[in-house]
């Protein structure tokens, strides 16, 4: 998602350091009006692309949220928490692994190697 939004040149909308565009006034230059219009269009496109990739259940949950940044933050928090749970699960699986007599040793070694490779892939 991040790659696609960057490719479309709209990921900047999420930038925490992005200065808000001031409210419209009668003295606005054409440049400020054009910037405001582009930012609003990019915000709508950003939100639409995020919602478009969600499953029906998640879409129903986030469709009423007007802010693309809020949707992005909520989803990022949700999936980072799941990632943390996965890491903890892998670590506990590694520490709790025990060899048993009723299974072939090579099959057990293979299971342990799979767990170790998953840990390496997650850089643990």
TrEMBL record:
It holds the Pfam family Retrotran_gag_2. PANTHER family: PBF68 PROTEIN (PTHR47592), ZINC FINGER, CCHC-TYPE-RELATED (PTHR47592:SF31). This is UBN2_2 domain-containing protein. The lineage of its organism: Eukaryota, Viridiplantae, Streptophyta, Embryophyta, Tracheophyta.
